[in-house]
Amino acid sequence: MIAVVADLVEREMAYTTDSGVYFAVDRLSGYGALVHRSVEDLREGAGARVDVDDDKADPLDFALWKAAKEGEPAWDSPWGPGRPGWHIECVAMSLDLLGDGFDIHGGGDDLIFPHHENERAEALGCGRAFATHWVHNGMVQVGGEKMSKSLGNFTTLGDLLGAWDPRALRLLVLQTHYRRTMEIGSDTLDQAAAALGRLDTFADRATQANLPASVPDPAVVERFRSAMDDDLGTPAAVAVLFDAVRDANRAIDIEDDTGAAALAAAVTTLSSVLGLELGSRGSSVPDPEATEIDGLVADRSAAKAAGEYAEADRIRDALTARGIQLEDNPAGTTWRRS
Description:
The protein is of the alpha+beta class. It has 13 helices and 11 strands. The strands form 4 sheets. The chain has a 4-stranded antiparallel β-sheet with strand order 1-2-3-4, covered by helices on one side. It has a 3-stranded mixed β-sheet with strand order 8-7-9, with no helix packed on it. β10 (324-329) and β11 form a beta hairpin.
């Protein structure tokens, strides 16, 4: 970090004051490009985001090295005892470990300015190439508020994965574009778990249908690829997956085994791309509703075997009202969510 600051000072991209060493933003062409704002626009709002310091030549100038204050940690440097500024450590680590022009720099959208803009400025000020692509994700929210430790509204991954199938959390993340705010809570996780159940039910149905081996439907794969190539459009890609499940179920219904096989192969392949292993064997956490439905299907089969057709019809009607479709075949009865 000291070496990077010294390089900036030597290149006259930074200056020293009694309070520390500051980067001079007006000496860097294109400062503000990451947030698509001019220096003048940023300067107007600097008072709300940047500490006021009469020693600075410009309100936008930011600290590279802060002079020591009583009671604060301090290290020796060419500019006296002090500590690094907020941004310099990221630049020093990135350039040292990844080298110039590394591919991707990620982070939350709340870090675009000033943190990421200032990282970029420091690297360019040293004559170094920095990140080729910047990827900024939206915040995770709970009840409409940003999830954070300070607000006490955070949930650990351990707690989530103890209560929901891990694949449901993965599907919830995939259904939200990475640049958009994502709401995580019981309702959204339950919805994701229900959607996952539809995928698992289809996978089991496709297995029981004994479809012929097939390559994935090329049209489905192409639609999926196009969605993912459009700024990692996972919500659109997931929609393609569910469309394929719908079309495959219809193909099975009309006994179009060839079409169903190609669509089922696409569902299996694309689910794997998304990190979702489908089918009853894919779930690492039992689905209480699925267990209950399996029990009701078994009760219906027992009622039919005993000649209690009214009871069998009652169970079937109750399941239909819950959006569960039954299919009787020589091997037994299968079910799926409609």
